[in-house]
Design a protein that fits this description.
Order of helices and strands of chain A: HHHH
CATH class of chain A: Mainly Alpha
Largest interface: A-B, 28 and 38 residues
Helix content of chain B: 25-40%
Oligomer: heterodimer
Number of strands of chain A: 0
CATH topology of chain A: Ferritin
Distance between the termini of chain A: 45 Å
Number of strands of chain B: 8
Strand content of chain A: under 5%
Order of helices and strands of chain B: HEEHEHHEHEHEEHEH
Structural class of chain B: alpha/beta
Bound molecules: thiamine diphosphate, iron/sulfur cluster
CATH architecture of chain A: Up-down Bundle
Largest sheet of chain B: 8 strands, mixed
Radius of gyration of chain A: 17 Å
CATH topology of chain B: Rossmann fold
Strand order of the largest sheet of chain B: 2-1-3-4-6-5-8-7
Chain lengths: 167, 278
């Protein structure tokens, strides 16, 4: 992977934050529909933070002519947009601790992506901006780790009529 | 002279409706919805020129979650409706979606003939190897020894339906296997399928995390076994001989004649009314 121009890098950063906000909102919606509002609130908060970062990345991109990439042309290290918390690991019985663990995976994914751009980009301007983003993402990771350390060890939601496979 | 302004570019979110999905958190179908909306945005399709037809099942709820035209039809009957629509309105982009129960069990016969007719539409089967909506019974693609349903405590005991092989044998002209956990690839496959001038079939492995939670582990099993596309039907079928069921990619693609009805010019609604008059 090599992201060597500022417009290309910012196109990635913008898509990463957009995808992350949409993904967190979808996870929040899914849990709300199933009556798990406290867990949903955490994902909603994460979506809000992603939108703040999106605005920041868009601000940096003001005046630049960003490339229009197709969904599959982004140079992500894995299968999905890197800050997307793994929605497939969520389930209706999850508690706030479980949700924090998934959010932490999302933030660590973004951190790893920016760190790899910082290390591999052939352009010093891109590497410098990636370093700034690495610092921000490291802060988010520490905050989430702190929340996780303080999150109570509550049990999972007790389903009195569980689906066959889980019951 | 009045100029018609160009259509604004739509974002994937513009193709979503304001109805919140009721799917279980973690269900693979969310990713399929995401990929469909991304694909429609990539193709810059006007919402009023797209129709998404489904049958019945958790997966078949999908039209309600999009802002294109949709029809949540009858169990197993999505393909006849979609084909009828495409024949009547060839100008529309017609997508058809549903589950493995809907498409291969009650709708299995329609699947065969839709492949054979090769009408230009895209059929997406969200295959979770279970009937999710009716609480976890075995489906046609369930493994013979899956014992988690009380209805089949010793497993269904019959070999699973082979969607790709059957699609190839029946005449589908674009045959793909995808995984819901790889949204970017799935988006690309949907774009290519819509662009293909014939019947495109995409089997999307889409885990039901509630009745088949073990399917979560599939993300470590899928691989790009169909990285190269064949234009030769026999060769594509041969490649399935050692397929483990987790190979992803465009297995087969070939431009072949599509069924076109012979419209009698001049037949208007009043002519049809006359034909039906007793
Ligand atoms: C004619 C008819 N027979 C049976 C049913 C009951 N039924 C509803 S959905 C469904 C199967 C759904 O499974 P699938 O199509 O695999 O979709 P999923 O829910 O797994 O996404 C069945 C048998 C029905 N609605 N109509
Ligand atoms: S029952 Fe299964 S298929 Fe249906 S919404 Fe839940 S996880 Fe998805």
């Amino acid at each position: 992977m090599s992201i060597d121009t500022l417009p290309l890098f910012l196109a990635h950063a913008i898509r990463l934050e957009e995808d992350s906000a949409i993904n967190y909102d979808a996870m929040a919606d899914a849990l709300e529909v199933h009556g798990k509002s406290p867990v949903a609130r955490l994902f909603r908060k994460m979506a809000h933070y992603s939108r703040l970062h999106l605005a920041e990345a868009e601000g940096r991109a003001a005046g630049l002519d960003l490339p229009r990439l197709k969904t599959w042309e982004y140079q992500w290290p894995g299968d999905d947009s890197p800050e997307n918390a793994p929605a497939d690991e969520s389930d209706y019985a999850m508690n706030e601790r479980d949700a924090l663990i998934l959010a932490l995976k999302g933030e660590k994914g973004a951190l790893a992506f920016y760190a790899s751009v910082m290390e591999t980009s052939g352009d010093t301007g891109v590497a410098d901006l990636a370093k700034e983003f690495v610092e921000e993402e490291s802060e988010h990771v520490s905050i989430l780790e702190d929340w996780l350390a303080r999150a109570p060890e509550t049990g999972r939601f007790e389903d009195l009529d569980p689906p066959i496979a889980i019951g | 002279m009045n100029q018609i302004p160009p259509l604004p570019d739509l974002e994937p979110a513009d193709y979503k409706s304001d109805v919140t999905p009721v799917w279980c958190p973690g269900c693979g179908h969310y990713a399929v919805l995401s990929a469909i909306t991304k694909a429609l945005a990539e193709l810059h399709l006007a919402r009023e020129n797209v129709a998404l037809i489904s049958g019945i099942g958790c997966s078949s709820r999908i039209p309600a979650y999009t802002s294109v035209y949709g029809f949540h039809s009858i169990h197993g009957r999505a393909l006849p409706v979609a084909q009828g629509l495409k024949l009547a309105r060839p100008d529309l982009t017609v997508l058809c979606a549903g589950g493995d129960g809907d498409g291969f069990s009650i709708g299995g016969n329609h699947f065969l003939h839709a492949c054979r007719r090769n009408i230009n539409l895209t059929y997406i089967v969200m295959d979770n190897s279970v009937y999710g909506m009716t609480k976890g019974q075995a489906s046609p693609t369930t493994e013979a020894d899956w014992t988690e349903s009380k209805l089949t405590p010793e497993g269904p005991g019959v070999p699973p339906f082979q969607p790709l092989d059957i699609a190839l044998a029946a005449g589908a002209s674009h045959v793909v296997r995808a995984f819901s956990g790889k949204v970017q690839l799935l988006t690309k496959y949907i774009v290519e399928a819509i662009e293909h001038p014939g019947f495109s079939f995409i089997q999307v492995i889409s885990p039901c995390v509630t009745y088949r939670p073990e399917m979560r582990a599939l993300k470590d099993r899928v691989h790009d076994g169909f990285a190269e596309t064949s234009a030769n039907r026999l060769e594509a079928r041969r490649r399935l001989l050692d397929d483990d069921g987790y190979s992803l990619g465009v297995l087969f693609k070939s431009v072949e004649p599509s069924y076109t009805p012979c419209h009698r010019s001049g037949d208007g609604v009043s002519d049809l009314e006359r034909q039906f008059a007793l």
